[in-house]
Amino acid sequence: MGQVEFELACATLKQLKGPVSDQEKLVVYSFYKQATQGDCNIPAPPDTDVKAKAKWEAWNEKKGMTKMDAMRIYITKVEELKKKENG
């Protein structure tokens, strides 16, 4: 698995029509950010910004994971969501 598969997974995710829970979105987001940018490098948002704080925490939990590992897991998560949508 590599860059091409990762980009295909990104495109697949955008095409999903079924409901995706907020938790699933956070998981996929965190692996995407880790795969594309590496370790979280921005300060934590204020606690009053609940959505931004949740996204930051999800990404920050992946600290130390390699970009390739994050790509592989992202691809797997997107495939799981696609299978779930297709029943």
TrEMBL record:
The compartments listed are:
Cytoplasm
Which GO BP annotation is one of this protein's? Answer: fatty acid metabolic process
Q: Which GO terms describe its cellular component?
A: mitochondrion
For this protein, the record's Gene3D superfamilies field holds: 1.20.80.10
Name the PANTHER family on file.
ACYL-COA-BINDING PROTEIN, ACBP (PTHR23310), DIAZEPAM-BINDING INHIBITOR-LIKE 5 (PTHR23310:SF13)
Q: Which family does it belong to?
A: Belongs to the ACBP family.
State what protein this is by name: Diazepam-binding inhibitor-like 5
Q: Which organism is it from?
A: Myotis davidii
Q: What is the lineage of its organism?
A: Eukaryota, Metazoa, Chordata, Craniata, Vertebrata
